[in-house]
Amino acid sequence: MARPKRQDARREALLQAAGVAIQRRGLHATRVRDIADQAGVAAGTVTYYFRDLDELFRLVFAQAVDRFCTQREREAAAHEDPRDQLAAVLRHGLPTGPDDQLCCLLYEFSPHARHRDSDAQLRRELYERQLHLYRDVLTRGHASGRFDLRRPAEEIAANLVALEDAYGYHVIARTFMPRQQAEEHLFGYAALATADPSLAPENHYGPG
Amino acid sequence: MARPKRQDARREALLQAAGVAIQRRGLHATRVRDIADQAGVAAGTVTYYFRDLDELFRLVFAQAVDRFCTQREREAAAHEDPRDQLAAVLRHGLPTGPDDQLCCLLYEFSPHARHRDSDAQLRRELYERQLHLYRDVLTRGHASGRFDLRRPAEEIAANLVALEDAYGYHVIARTFMPRQQAEEHLFGYAALATADPSLAPENHYGPG
Amino acid sequence: MARPKRQDARREALLQAAGVAIQRRGLHATRVRDIADQAGVAAGTVTYYFRDLDELFRLVFAQAVDRFCTQREREAAAHEDPRDQLAAVLRHGLPTGPDDQLCCLLYEFSPHARHRDSDAQLRRELYERQLHLYRDVLTRGHASGRFDLRRPAEEIAANLVALEDAYGYHVIARTFMPRQQAEEHLFGYAALATADPSLAPENHYGPG
Amino acid sequence: MARPKRQDARREALLQAAGVAIQRRGLHATRVRDIADQAGVAAGTVTYYFRDLDELFRLVFAQAVDRFCTQREREAAAHEDPRDQLAAVLRHGLPTGPDDQLCCLLYEFSPHARHRDSDAQLRRELYERQLHLYRDVLTRGHASGRFDLRRPAEEIAANLVALEDAYGYHVIARTFMPRQQAEEHLFGYAALATADPSLAPENHYGPG
DNA sequence: AATGAATGAGATTTCATTCAT
DNA sequence: CATGAATGAAATCTCATTCAT
């Protein structure tokens, strides 16, 4: 163990504090000072542990990505029935509300992915792990006869991730869509694509 | 006319220059200097016209939102057949590629909407105008018998906007999804939701 | 004239101020703040003109080298008789006293020449221009029959420069040798090497 | 013995390490960290032993001065014949080359002698011990009839020290004079001043 | 005795903004 | 109207030093 436990704990605490600071102020407005205040240490301590602020941010992002994906993968694994799996994954993909820390973090980093390679890679990892999750559930559901996929599994998975991303943003951004409604829309698409009416009540719809 | 024309022209040019600068460097990294350089004027000139930099950014965002929505509304109006309308709107909602200036701008401002009221309002306007566009097309298509909506028009419209947003980001962010594929996914959903197979070839899909 | 006169004047003033500050505090202890104070401007102004402090220091050194050499070359040119020339050059090569600004500057930069290439080049230029000055005077004095060189002109010139350098340091460093004595030693060597007793009284010397 | 031996040994090691660090990076750029790294200890250990960094530097200088002078005095004492003594002292006064650690150290401290009293005193001690060395050799050589001093012993001694100082710098500073040439110039002067042609071949010299 | 985590003073650097021209 | 020299507030970064272990 090259680095003593105490130092690791402090690093962890700083990353945690940085996460909170970013969620509160926005990534672009978070200063060393904010992180230090949040962690209850001196500003110098932050630069002592992270010579480079960008590196710290990258780690915060990496951790958020991993935590988010792991969480969902675990959630999926907790169910046997593909339909239950799908429902669980759908529900846990959306932020709980405007204060969902993990999700807020992920959105803060999005525009950076256009400008920084390391962020682009992480963003891609986030995307592919989510895609993989959905594709697996759909494929297994189809194989077991539970789902009758009306479009390619790949497309449905991609669409579910996309809807999740977009609605997630709506839930988080103030003045937008409530989580409940976002969830209904997601399940609406899932029902349509898997031809499983138990995911959403099917009717014949007129205008509006 | 309180403000002479020449001054207005200069303001317009600065907004234009700011847009380019933001697209290139990212919103958070754009300095007065960058805008001035891009516009070919002195730094002092920028603050001379825009005492408040935040105001300038807000205007850039507002203009981008309006330009984007107007463009699409015009596009929709250019067609008679609801299906052509829908196809046209879908196609023009996605960025042409990673260099689509207008779309890049819109994404740069997204995380700010969580932190600044004026941005939140603009973001909401952007959302609602797009939503309205789709809902209209769908409703009229349904009324004319062209579409057989399998879910509420409101939901389908919201899902189309959401898919567009998410895929738009993928097209723009480097290392992500090519526009072509994003478009196919979008049409796939549209075909499913409107029960109009002409939008995408319908088959029975197995795993993968 | 790409750069307006006023800006050039300010740059010149800052270089001048930097010279004073360096002489007072020593090169290694001179901060941006000291230069700004000396010039009567804000600290930001110094970095506005000289983004890189090292660059400023290099210019100060370069200017000092050039000024010092030009001064001496002009002095030499003011005389006809080689002996008068030699005497003039010798006298102007030594600092007037511990406050001789130009000389203090040159000594401050000496140790840096071991560590920075640009300083090494300037130091070398300083050396070669002085060497050339002496060699010329000696050669012409010999040719005219005024001097009877007892050692190669090259060696005598090098030795005169070396003595000058070392004694110059003594004159400048506190608690060292008075200028008067340093001058006598220099002339003593010159008399010996040129066999011109008029440069220093020649006797037969016993111990002490 | 108030201070135990082990502690003394550690102090000694740190001074040694500091010397190396200063030679490598230059006095003004040497940080506590560099010394600690060089000595293979923690940074805290350096300040534990030397509460005051300036004090440490002073001791490094003092030690260098003493070591340099003692070395030369021992060298002089190793010979009987005044001419051999003079030759030995001359040879050992010049740095062996650009990496001569002791000499580099002495030069690093030179400009500080203008700004710090303690350094000025050490520099003066260095000067006077060298001066004394030469004066003794010259006086005894003259008394024994070996030398026929053509200038006062005091002046010759001072000039030899001065030449040594200046040429020493040239040898050390990159891009300057090779040691061999410096030595020839020094012997040239010694031969002239002591009228001892065995120190350097005497001829009649024309221009160049 | 020795460490090295943590600090905070002090320096530089960046940059929006002011203002005389 | 437009400039750009000059500013100074605000941020980061460096590093000697402290102190609990």
UniProtKB/TrEMBL annotation, chains A, B, C, D:
One of its GO terms (molecular function) is DNA-binding transcription factor activity. Keywords: DNA-binding, Repressor, Transcription, Transcription regulation. Residues 31-50 bind DNA. It comes from the Bacteria. Gene3D superfamilies: Tetracycline Repressor, domain 2. PROSITE patterns: HTH_TETR_2. Residues 8-68 form the HTH tetR-type domain. SUPFAM superfamilies: Homeodomain-like, Tetracyclin repressor-like, C-terminal domain. This is TetR family transcriptional regulator. It comes from Streptomyces chumphonensis.
